[in-house]
Design a protein that fits this description.
This protein has 269 residues and is of the alpha/beta class. Helices cover 45% and strands 18% of the residues. α3 (33-46) crosses α9 and α8 (207-226) runs antiparallel to α9 (234-253).
């Protein structure tokens, strides 16, 4: 099924006021397991750096929730958030102006083409690379755009059932994906090809995370795909499953997994 129309509808609902958008971000932070893993890695990176005037690239910013979270850690950080969708970029610029975060700028850019040599201390790519066929070109551009010692943080589905694909005959749950998931060695090799030398990769979305994802994301998306009328039912559905999902997310983010449907990858220039 196509996920973008549902995302667009959600954006329209929560973009009506800055208060609603802040609420939306906080709900995403709690509900989306990838956010738990990404925030954990970002806290490690940020330790001792909040007073430094650093430059950050949010490569494929989407709703802008990671830019919002990062910009709240330090007003000294300058963040450039790029995305290919004009409407999301415009909405995000308006929101961040409304809340007075002048250290943030959103821009329309294609990651396959975009490059700012030696400009960023950190680049972030969360659930983006599974949408881009020319992934090595993107990795090359980000590598060139990082300063020496800069880090790229990636969250993406793995080939161990990412995109809810478990057998050769199955197709991705999300039809916008151009690949079902990365092999952990494959993505490391592609990053080396792009110029990265030090790379760390681990699995996310182990057994607890996979259960949480089905309850918190897959089933609601399937319901909304059938009818937008399910928006009325969603608050009651989440009132029941939300506490269980929080507990499952907590376990998943604090457990080392031998396998998982997601990958967290860090690469340094």
């Amino acid at each position: 099924m196509y996920y973008d129309p549902i995302k667009k509808t959600l954006g329209q609902v929560f973009n009506r006021t800055p208060w609603l958008r802040r609420l939306f971000y906080h709900l995403l932070d709690l509900l989306l397991l990838r956010t738990w893993h990404v925030h954990r890695e970002l806290r490690r990176w940020a330790k001792g750096r909040t007073q430094e005037p650093l430059h950050i690239l949010d490569a494929g910013s989407g709703y802008g929730q990671y830019t919002y979270w990062l910009s709240g850690l330090s007003s000294k950080w300058n963040i450039l958030a790029v995305d290919v969708k004009d409407d999301q970029v415009a909405d995000s610029n308006q929101f961040f102006r409304q809340i007075g975060r002048k250290n943030v700028q959103f821009a329309v850019q294609d990651l396959v083409l975009y490059q700012e040599p030696n400009s960023f201390d950190l680049a972030l790519s969360v659930d983006v690379m599974e949408h881009i066929l020319e992934d090595v070109e993107v990795f090359r551009n980000i590598h060139a755009s990082l300063k020496d010692g800069g880090m790229l943080l990636i969250s993406t589905p793995s080939d161990q059932g990412g995109s809810d694909v478990h057998d050769d005959g199955e197709t991705s749950f999300i039809e916008e994906h151009v690949r079902d998931g990365y092999n952990i060695r494959e993505i490391q090799q592609k990053l080396r090809t792009a110029g990265f030398e030090r790379i760390e990769a681990r699995y996310s979305y182990g057994e607890p995370g996979q259960i949480s994802w089905r309850l918190s994301m897959k089933y609601p998306i399937l319901m909304l795909g059938k009818s937008r009328a399910f928006f009325i039912v969603l608050p009651f559905y989440y009132a029941v499953v939300f506490p269980f999902c929080l507990l499952l997310n907590w376990f998943d983010a604090r457990t080392a997994h031998d396998s998982g449907t997601g990958l967290i990858v860090k690469a340094w220039k």
